[in-house]
Amino acid sequence: MAEGAEAFDAIVEVGGGTGAITQALANRNPEARLVVFELSEQLADGLHARFPHAQVVAGAFHENVSVLHDLPPKTVVVSGLPFRSLPARIVRPTVDALADVLRADQARRLVQFSYRLRAPFAAPADFVWRRVCTVWRNAPPANVWELHGKPVSA
Ligand SMILES: C[S@@+](CC[C@H](N)C(=O)[O-])C[C@H]1O[C@@H](n2cnc3c(N)ncnc32)[C@H](O)[C@@H]1O
């Protein structure tokens, strides 16, 4: 996950949780601006204390996405949200908000962690999924997926 976020000027993590991925992102990309969204206020407080240089946003990503209005073009979004088990009323606005962030620049992408072999969610029409790798040493084995905009034909 953290490897896929290298060479970007800003990293947005959705669902920071206990901070395991946040820590790897911060270690590998100390110069990048880091914004972390976390639904649970308690977990968000923990992330804020542990990563004082990061902007931690408590609450649902799709309800707070407006804080991302000034991101640099080279931004990567990293997510561990369990899309396949979330209710549609959460998945739909979350995917819409993610797609809006990615559409702002062709260089942007979503790096998504999933335990399933299927793509994490149906890609919007102007996006495509790529399965980057399977991490066999994770228990259970996990897949890293990347969502990016389809190339614009001339
Ligand atoms: C699978 S856990 C992430 C695990 C995390 N990488 C860790 O190391 O703990 C998913 C996290 O996403 C948060 N979450 C769920 N829905 C969310 C949403 N709509 N916006 C932001 N965070 C959300 C949950 O509270 C949970 O902490």
Overview of the structural elements:
The protein has 154 residues and is of the alpha/beta class. The protein has one domain: Vaccinia Virus protein VP39 (Rossmann fold). Helix content is 25%, strand content 28%. The protein is built from 4 helices and 7 strands, in the order βαβαβαβαβββ. The chain has helices at residues 20-28, 41-50, 61-64, 88-103, and strands at 10-14, 33-38, 55-58, 75-79, 109-114, 127-135, 142-149. It has a 7-stranded mixed sheet with strand order 3-2-1-4-5-7-6, sandwiched between helices. The longest helix is centred in the middle third of the chain and has 16 residues, at 88-103. The radius of gyration is 15 Å and the shape is globular. The chain starts with 9 loop residues before the first strand and ends in a 5-residue tail after the last strand. The model has no long low-confidence stretch (mean pLDDT 93). It binds S-adenosylmethionine. S-adenosylmethionine (SAM) binds at residues 14-15, 17-21, 37-40, 43, 60-61, 80-82, 90, 94. S-adenosylmethionine binds at residues 14-15, 17-21, 37-40, 43, 60-61, 80-82, 90, 94.
